[in-house]
Design a protein that fits this description.
Elements: H1 11-30, H2 38-55, H3 60-67, E1 69-76, E2 89-96, E3 101-108, E4 117-126, E5 134-149, E6 152-159, E7 166-173, E8 177-182, E9 187-192
Antiparallel strand pairs: 1-2, 1-9, 2-3, 3-4, 4-5, 5-6, 5-7, 7-8, 8-9
Helix pairs in contact: 1-2
């Protein structure tokens, strides 16, 4: 028997309402303190994402400005340790599409987080081709991002050589939620961190 919660109402009004309900349930699963167990999340989150991708697909030709900001990874389909969501770790992605730059940043959660983190800087570009969801990524430097003193932040980065093309397809995007699919097939769900300023990291 099919799950009635996955049913989609007919017509544009029903589709819009269903997308909102799906989005709210997905955000509830992604937020800290979610009642979903890891086993439940592993099943429920991909189903909600696939449903929302159909109902509310991103269009970066109109939404590119919404990419900008600090995002936190809250779930991924990857088994890699640095892509696992842990309560003691913040996995942040900083996007500045107007300037064509980005950074992936791992740091401790809590008051020690601003003191140090491991970051990888990249150049990014929004592809002009339909379906207007692809963002090219070229990693350029990686290293240590330290605390801020006045208007400057201590950092030590070295050049990195990327031997393969990388990209993300941003399939769902709004002011609070972003879903992306990577070139290796990994599925990511991120929530915006409005408490963190992009300029504090990408000066």
């Amino acid at each position: 028997m099919s799950d009635p919660s996955l049913a989609i109402d007919d017509g544009p009004t029903g589709a819009a309402g269903d997308a909102q309900a799906c989005r709210e349930e997905l955000l509830g699963c992604l937020r800290a303190g979610s009642p979903c167990s890891p086993a439940e999340a592993a099943v429920r989150i991909p189903a909600l994402i696939e449903r929302l991708e159909r109902l509310q697909p991103a269009d970066l030709s109109a939404q590119a400005a919404q990419l900008a900001g600090v995002w936190e990874l809250r779930w991924s389909s990857s088994s890699l340790p640095y892509l696992a969501v842990q309560p003691w770790l913040e996995n942040l992605q900083l996007l500045d599409p107007d300037a064509g730059r980005a950074m992936n940043l791992l740091r401790l959660a809590g008051p020690l987080g601003p003191l140090a983190g491991i970051g990888v800087q990249a150049r990014i570009g929004v592809a002009a081709e339909p379906p207007h969801q692809r963002v090219s990524v070229q990693f350029v430097r990686g290293g240590w991002l330290g605390p801020q003193f006045g208007e400057r932040r201590l950092q030590l980065f070295r050049q990195v050589n990327q031997s393969f093309p990388a990209w993300l397809d941003v399939t769902v995007l709004d002011d609070e939620l972003r879903v992306s699919r990577g070139n290796s097939g990994t599925l990511f769900a991120l929530v915006r961190r409005p408490d963190l300023a992009l300029a504090a990291f990408l000066a």
